[in-house]
Amino acid sequence: MRGNFNFIMRNIIITLFLLLPLKADVHTIAVLDFTGENIHQDELRNLSAVFRTELLEMDTLRVLDYEDMTDILASNGIKPSCPSLKCAIIASMLLDQEWLVS
């Protein structure tokens, strides 16, 4: 279980560094709740919240507010965590953001 968490954290850190050169006035992003195997859903939800916060603090992207995102998704019958690519694609189209992290 700890190995999966370390793998997820490493991928998040790599993603953060890839997003560093972006400008806040140009790009938008939505961050769905993360999903994973053998990791409690609460830990994944907290991890996605930390990721959102880090993106906001970097001030390089306009991050879609979590409550706005969940309202948009809930009105279309979708949960804020997408376990499949099909769900993530539908969420991406509904949220109308340039990028989506899932």
Could you tell me how far the N terminus lies from the C terminus, measured between alpha carbons in angstroms?
20 Å
Label the structural class. Answer: mainly alpha
Largest sheet: 3 strands, parallel
The whole-angstrom Rg is 13 Å
Gross geometry: globular
Order of strands across the main sheet: 2-1-3
Mean pLDDT, to the nearest integer, reads 82
Share of β-strand residues: 5-15%
Fraction of residues in helices?
Answer: 40-55%
The total of beta strands comes to: 3
> Helix segment count?
4
Describe this structure in words.
With 102 residues, this protein is mainly alpha-helical. The chain has helices at 2-19, 41-58, 66-74, 85-95; strands at 28-31, 62-63, 99-101. It has a 3-stranded parallel β-sheet with strand order 2-1-3. The longest helix has 18 residues, at 2-19. It is globular.
